[in-house]
Write a structure and sequence with these properties.
homodimer; 518 residues; alpha+beta; Uridine Diphospho-n-acetylenolpyruvylglucosamine Reductase, domain 3; Vanillyl-alcohol Oxidase, Chain A, domain 3; 4 domains; eight-stranded antiparallel beta sheet; 12 helices; 19 strands; 29% helix; globular
Chain lengths: 518, 518
């Protein structure tokens, strides 16, 4: 069992006793079997001494209980690490950065506080998953769609704060967020946007309120704990077509991206479209080093046998005529740009029956599915970067990354390309880990650090990163002697002087623990 | 001539001398004729002693010059007030809140630093207006549309930071912002989002970067000075239909709003639609107290003669078939909901010729126009509030506001209803002012304060407010003893300990001047 830094066993026992008074005996976890639930099994450090181990986990059921937890943590200077449901797999899951942290597990705060069909939004607590919300919408018979990541057990608040992506009409999760309740490190409870007016009727309907708009400060952040959040939903469209475009040449990804860009920018393709190789599942090549279907790009280009082609997954929504007109036009554009382009699609109309849909259609309709993301099944870590939305940039990226993988005896293994933020291209490189062989994990870690460094130099900085690479990733945001990180840390020291909230999250350290920066 | 609070004439002369060294003699303004250019002529205080008068204005041409201005202001503890082009008419224009402030006028920083057709964005400095950008797009022959407020001389940065609204596909200006350069009170220069990576290729293409997303902190804010901003543009659509729906009964606004809501939420109406009475121009009833075309709602409802009906202004964009299908569907929906509904529309196709368009079509296509917003021509002030997007709420609002106007011998004068933030309804109440009669202005001020107070109680808080009402408006954001305002002021005291940046902006005061809160 770990202890929080600087605390004696006696002091920690006293703190635990106060935590138990705050949340009840059943909701303070200290035995090894329970602590093991908070381990990051997707970390390259997983079998080493360097892997942080929490000292305890505490699960408050309310804002009032959470405030007491914060008071105790301030009194004892205990670093906390807040999770919503802890399903941030590949990026650190439920684990922390500082050995001996106390995990604040918000899974019990799982109430859907409001679900509004007329204005298409929900107000949720951190323990509510996309699946929970989808089920409640179905139960009430509301004609609303949700959206979210393919692992639908993830917390809506957690995934939105991490700026994840869905596959439907509100795929860019951060843009669908409206209004927050935040508990600051000192226990002060704040509502943002229109919610700052205690009579507000538009907390989940208008984002900004009056004066500085602070919601973004609490995303990917350790400046406060979000306890309520508004999330926008989608009115069920009358018709929907789930579509795929296939191209057979490996190098055809270049014109595919360049054809997608203007269609996505002009909202002809209105959903959070993706592309991937036309072999394997959601994460290509995740079967293992050098082997898998991804198998590295053909750096010489062309249609060499064995190198995969690509498919783009698109969604079209609205009145039947609109859906058909947009889809026909998209086919025309691809057919004229890429000779190898072929098309497949499925048409659906309200009332929708999920049982008639394949996974790709479900995702584009925001219907939770548990069938994708196979990398979760065997362990791996990610480097997730943003680059310009052009074929040339992606091809440069493929070659650069494959070259780096080869230095470590692997070939590039890519994840899908996401076009949720419509002017940029987000993708992720997967690096497999071993649950038993530390040499594999050391090599993975070295590769990832190299990928992050080179990405930073190329201008492809990361949008999100696993715990173990947070300092590396933030390091690449270097403008004017890391002015943005210095700004974050100025805010951190002001808002959380004892440095109790998730120290080190995304490379932002409180004064007291700043020497822990990697 | 005013002096900054606490400064002697000798001290101020020394400061002015340092400002002149920083920006050049020609760009420090102190004579009355120049200072008069920075007066708010739309303030109810305009002819009273309470109207703040700047002590000087300083116009830096670069970030380097601005940094020196900030250093001098810190040395002498001089309150500054930053404007981009100062065209925030009705909300305070170029004026400040503290008597004797030095206006930092950024009009000389008017460079279009980047204009990217492929990814549809621009990077601009504060002095660039919507019209400047539109003209540069035309000069280059790029197939891009801009969007923005009807007074197109307004600064893009200024209007976006104030969270203004346009009329086209990117009408919600704050949502179209991507990446900033900010100069903090201490002169530190920070780039946000991907721009924090000095090699970034996606500064204007992906908003969030890694870690806390801080851009919103600098909107409607006095926490920093935005010196560069990315703004998204719209790829020119192949076809465009500018459309209007008319209803003849005054009470028909109720079903009109309720018919608009689902169409707007589902993006069938994709632009930043508006509605207004079918008489008068952009601001109804602005001709004068009790007289104008707005003339107050019919609080008994119905189709009484003389009470105006309404029109909604809509835009449809994309491929011809899509435009026509959506517009036909919208007509069907209105015809079945409202017997009095009639329709008018004009079809356009690329290449577009602005000379063939009327003002309403130009606005929906983001083409700058100077023909609307007649309230600017004779002076008036605003109360601008956000309410739920329902007919019942708006009708309640009309009756409530008209009742309050009548207490002051006037009838309600409304501005258009804006549906740019698609889950809420924003509108504004106009109150005329006199350039000569203080009694008119005192009555206007009392009415506005009452409107703001009642709005706060009703939950219709303001999204933006004139200088003179900023403390009143922020007062209504009262949750947990004004937790959000306390948070803003904690940040203010940390980031700007001398309180030099725009003290009092939106009710956020630095420690040193906090007793000035109304």
């Amino acid at each position: 069992m770990s202890l929080p830094p600087g605390l004696s066993q006696g002091q920690f026992d006293n703190a635990l006793s106060e935590f138990r008074t705050a949340v009840g005996n059943d909701w303070v976890f200290t035995i090894d079997e329970h602590i093991a639930m908070y381990k990051d099994y997707f970390s390259p450090l997983q079998n080493t001494e360097a892997q942080p181990i929490p000292s305890a986990a505490v699960a408050p059921d309310s804002v009032e209980e959470l405030k007491v937890v914060l008071r105790v943590a301030n009194d004892y200077q205990i670093p906390l690490w807040t999770i919503s449901t802890g399903k941030n797999y590949g990026y650190g899951g439920p684990d922390s950065r500082v050995n001996g942290s106390v995990i604040v597990d918000l899974k019990r705060m799982n109430r859907i506080l409001e679900l509004n069909e007329e204005h298409a939004y929900a107000l949720v607590e951190p323990g509510v998953s996309t699946y929970d919300l989808w089920r409640e919408i179905r139960r009430r018979g509301y004609r609303l769609w949700t959206d979210g990541p393919s692992p639908a057990y993830a917390s809506i608040i957690g995934n939105t704060l991490e700026r994840g992506a869905g596959y439907g009409l509100l795929g860019e999760r951060a843009a669908a967020q409206c209004g927050m309740e935040v508990v600051l490190a000192n226990g002060d409870v704040m509502r943002t946007g229109m919610g700052a007016n205690s009579n507000a009727e538009t907390w989940q309907q208008y984002k900004y309120g009056l004066g500085p708009y602070v919601d973004g400060m609490f995303s990917q952040s350790n400046l406060g704990i979000v306890t309520k959040m508004g999330i926008w939903l989608i009115p069920e469209p009358p018709a929907f077509r789930s579509a795929e475009v296939y191209v057979s040449g490996h190098e055809d990804i270049i014109p595919m991206i360049d054809t997608l860009r203007p269609l996505r920018l002009s909202n002809v393709i209105a959903n959070s479209a993706t592309a991937s190789t036309n072999q394997g599942g959601h994460i290509e090549g995740a079967q293992g080093p050098g082997g898998g279907a991804g198998g590295g790009p053909n750096v010489d280009g062309g249609h060499a046998p064995g190198l995969p082609g690509w498919r783009a997954r698109l969604g079209f929504y609205g009145y039947d005529r609109v859906v058909e007109a947009n889809w026909e036009q998209v086919q025309d554009e691809f057919a004229s740009a890429i000779p190898s382009a072929t098309f497949h699609s499925s048409r659906f109309a309200a009332p929708y029956n999920p049982d008639e849909m394949l996974t790709e259609s479900k995702l584009a309709a925001g219907i939770p599915s548990f069938q994708e993301a196979p990398i979760w099944n065997h362990g791996g870590t990610f480097v997730s970067m943003v680059m310009p939305f052009t074929g040339a940039d992606y091809w440069d990226f493929l070659q650069t990354y494959d070259g780096l993988y080869q230095e470590y005896g692997m070939r590039y293994m890519g994840g899908p390309l996401h076009f949720h933020a419509p002017r940029s291209l987000m993708t992720l490189a997967g690096v497999p880990l071993s649950s038993t062989d530390n040499a594999v994990n050391e090599r993975a870690m070295a590769l990832c650090e190299n990928l992050i460094r080179v990405s930073g130099e190329k201008g492809w900085s990361e949008y999100r990163t696993p715990l173990v690479f947070m300092d590396n990733a933030m390091e690449s945001f270097d403008f004017n002697d890391h002015a943005l990180r210095r700004f974050h840390e100025t805010l951190k020291d002001t808002l959380d002087p004892n440095g109790i909230l998730s120290p080190g999250k995304n490379g932002v350290w409180p004064q007291r623990l700043r020497e822990e920066r990697a």
